[in-house]
Predict the 3D structure of the following.
Amino acid sequence: MIQKIISPCVIVVLSVFLTGAVCAQSPKIGYVNSAKILQEYPEAQDAQKRLDGLGKQWQSELEQKSKDLEQKYEEFQKKESMLSDQAKRDQREELVALEQKGVQFRQEKFGQDGELARLTDSLLAPIKKKVMKVIEAVAKNEKLQFVFDRNEQVLVLLYGDAKYDYTHEVIDWLKRGKGLEKETPKGD
């Protein structure tokens, strides 16, 4: 009978003790704004300028193709009534082919797997890797167990006190090249 009473009491005492120990060592948490980091990191700014330049160039080419198509269509409409049936078919086929070339160009350059998307990935992947390495270095330096991202596109963190925002520290480390040194393997 006494053992039936002692067992639950021991469990309660142990759980209170363990809960107290866990609460005493609560994790240290911080956050960064990855979008702001990429906006202020010179290497990312250069990559974005290059991408913007290519995007504008390709957009210009696309607009020119569209204007050419529109002009040819207007010319066709003006002289359509004077054309033979065969000439009308030929011109319509030519217009459809021009339109398809424009659509294909748009897809090749701006599509989900287009040249701009591939170039963006290839230019930004090494930059993002550097940013992640510095975020990890800052987290270790500040003894943070968790670092969340808080930016306009992804709301992983809905609220964070500004004193736990390490965005500026990460930007500073990136600009100074701090935290990017090669790590030496442990045990050397």
Remarks:
- The radius of gyration is 30 Å.
